[in-house]
Design brief:
7-stranded mixed β-sheet; globular
Length: about 450
């Protein structure tokens, strides 16, 4: 059945963005109930919402702005203070069909463009015939299947397809698992896909105001290119049409395989959202975290080292080297940075650095790097090196934001010979080459 092309006017965009804001509010409230504390919040602002669930959550954002006036300075001040107190940046996702004055206002307040995401839609017209998928069974996940569904979705998200514009976000598995639980508690329905009887992927569906929001779809890497995503999409669309929805929407990274897949099924690009981010003020991060030299046994913080090192043999070879800085929140060690001298007397290297997974993306890593740069400068160092996998897009982005620049590429640095398992993937890219970056500190 050939479906009509969709034209997205401001009214349709407002309807979709309202649904997105409602979903974020419901998910943040579910997170608050799960945690049982006062960490999370939902603040209404100019027709949209500002939400915070927990450290590093994908629900920490402002959504739905630009369709019911422009937020006033006092409202934004409150949101920015609330997020800064939690060590979180402010992320506003603004539709290109929103009032242009919103983006101008945010830019004037120091927000900068971080990324884009595309919103695509399909007219359902009250009917949708489910496509047959031989060997693949898709249905609503039962309560006793939730954990295996969660494992499949988390595994899929941990290994993105790598096509198109990379996501500006990279969530630890534990954070993703919490987010999916909160989505389900907020009324999002999980769908499980089995291929020849084996769990191969999952997705989810939320129905509100006649809009079907297709969320959280992922395929286990070993089952990709087998029609799993097409089957998941078809099943959810059929159920959405039966529930009376007249439109289905999905959000993707620009140029991604996910976008390609849904366009093959008839979806049309409706509009793009700009992702505008204001970082954590240094004073807010400093109030939360102290960075000190560590003089305890290295074995006590080895689990942190293991977050950044995939080879136990390699870790054994350098664990006791150099100095270690630790980030403390209260008396808890929440991150570390190992600083070693190289064979060049004025050159140091960040050998290993990591932040506890539930506290990532909250400015802790930046605090550690700044302290390391200060230490190198005081010791008359002229260069600070760091090496990371070429496949690790998140690390490359992080270090460049700290002022590091790419220096050299070391090909085939991560092999079985050097202690790394063959076929290891990071961001959907095989772990093979190492990128060296450097920073030239100011002399103390």
């Amino acid at each position: 059945m050939k479906r009509a092309s969709l034209f997205c006017d401001v009214a349709l965009a407002q309807r979709i963005e309202r649904g997105e804001a409602q979903l974020m509010a419901a998910a943040a409230e579910a997170a608050r109930l799960r945690r049982g504390d006062g960490t999370g919040f939902v603040l209404r602002v100019a027709g949209g919402v500002a939400t915070f669930a927990e450290d590093g959550s994908p629900f920490n954002k402002i959504a739905g702005l630009g369709f019911d006036g422009v937020p006033d300075a006092a409202a934004l001040d409150e949101i920015e203070r609330a997020l800064a107190a939690r060590g979180a940046p402010v992320q506003a996702e603004v539709s290109e069909l929103a009032d242009p004055a919103v983006s101008a206002l945010l830019t004037d307040r120091g927000y900068r463009l971080e990324s884009f995401e595309n919103v695509l839609g399909l007219a359902l017209d009250g009917t949708y015939e489910r496509m047959p998928s031989p060997g693949i069974d898709v249905r609503v996940a039962r309560d006793d299947e939730f954990e295996v569904w969660l494992d499949a979705v988390a595994d899929g998200f941990a290994h993105p397809d790598g096509q198109g514009v990379p996501s500006h976000e990279d969530f630890p598995r534990a954070v993703l698992a919490n987010a999916e639980r909160d989505f389900t508690a907020a009324g999002v329905v999980p769908y499980i896909a089995l291929r020849d009887g084996t769990v191969a992927g999952g997705g989810s569906l939320r129905v509100a105001d006649g809009v079907a929001q297709l969320t959280g779809a992922a395929t286990v890497p070993s089952h990709r290119r087998r029609g799993v995503q097409t089957a998941l999409l078809s099943a959810r669309l059929a159920d959405a049409a039966a529930a009376g929805c007249d439109i289905a929407v999905v959000t993707t990274q620009p140029g991604s395989r996910s976008q390609q897949n849904v366009q093959r099924q008839g979806f049309h690009l409706l509009y793009t959202r700009a992702v505008l981010v204001r970082g954590v003020p240094p004073t807010a991060a400093a109030e939360e975290v102290r960075v000190v030299l560590y003089d305890g046994p290295r074995g006590a913080i080895r689990p942190l080292f293991e977050l950044a090192e995939d080879s136990p043999a390699q870790l054994d070879s350098y664990l006791e080297d150099g100095k270690v800085l630790v980030a403390l929140r209260g008396t808890d060690v929440i991150g570390h940075l190992q600083l070693v001298r190289t064979d060049q007397p004025d050159t140091f290297e960040i050998k290993n650095m990591a932040v506890r997974e539930d506290l990532q993306r909250a400015g802790v890593g930046s605090c550690l790097v700044r302290r390391a740069i200060e230490l190198v400068s005081r010791e008359s160092g002229r260069r600070l090196l760091v090496a990371t996998a070429a496949a690790d897009i998140g690390n490359l982005r992080f270090y460049q934001r700290q002022g590091f620049r790419m220096r050299t590429i070391e090909r085939d640095a991560f092999t079985a010979r050097t202690g790394y398992a063959p076929g290891t993937l990071i961001d959907g890219i095989e772990l093979r080459d190492r990128v060296w970056l450097d920073h030239l500190p100011q002399r103390a």
